[in-house]
Amino acid sequence: MIRVGLIGVGGISRVHVRGYNEIDTAKLVAAADVRGEDAKGFENIKDMGIPLYTSVDEMLANEELDMVDICVPTYLHTEMVQKALAHGLHVLCEKPVSGTSEEAAQAIEAAKKAGKCYMVAHVVRFMKPYMYLKKLVESGELGKPVHFMMRRLSSIPRWSFEDWMRDAKKSGATPIDLSIHDIDFIYDVFGEPKDVSAVYRAMTGKEGFANNDYVTSHLIYDDFSVDITGTWYNCELPFSAEFLAIFENGYAELRGKKLTVNGEEIDLDTPKESEGGTGINITSGSGYTDEIAYFVSCIESGKAPERATPESAQGTVRLVERILANAKRV
Question: 3-state SS string over 79-142?
């Protein structure tokens, strides 16, 4: 049994906690959050009988752990990853790997030095509709890709601790925090594009906080293109994540929660969502459980993760940096 310490008990931690409750190879034994019982996700762990520390250092000093699951804000990722690795623990860290590719390199170097498993939780790589799309690409069943359109739409996230998500210096705003999900998927499947361009609008409200922030990225490969849009709009817009993938001989479309290929619905055998809301713009699908189970299996086998390597996660951040360097600002 892998003993897990949870670092950060905010909104995203809720789907991680549910994941541990659904697998029998790992167990949450402790948690840490500077807010203590005021943490947004505290209700998910309060009946588990595990200690909640307000200091990560105190948790690491007092608990016998095998790994940590890092669910803190992006700007703290590298610091927490390095701290846990130095303590001799395996590390699963929420996406993105960090706010910059340079910081990502620091975490990778720390993992090599520690000789521990380290994985960035890019959950879309483990979500069944996207895994099915990747399989269609690799099998050539519908021919070669022609044009992919990915979009991830959301209202402005106003629920984060100290409003860190709307502070572009801390979150990276839509390019690093939101659109990176789809950018990472495309990078994982196709690698580095030949050419990139983008349109980026980062309006600022009071105190420099992002408002109506959106990015549309255009990626050019040898014989096809990809358009990726991510938004934080100042309206009550229901969250959605969809794609339309056009191939030489057909198409695949994810609309709402339904995946169709050439108009026929695909049964993905996806379990129903866990009861209860998450309080943020995600649902508690099986991808979170599957990524945790995969990482735990890597620890048990003594093999470094291959489905979501930290080097690949760094490559995704580097691609976002390239996109922004070539973006037209409006």
Answer: HHHHHHHHCCCEEEEECCCCCCHHHHHHHHHHHHHHCCCEEEECHHHHCHHHHHHHHHHHHCCC
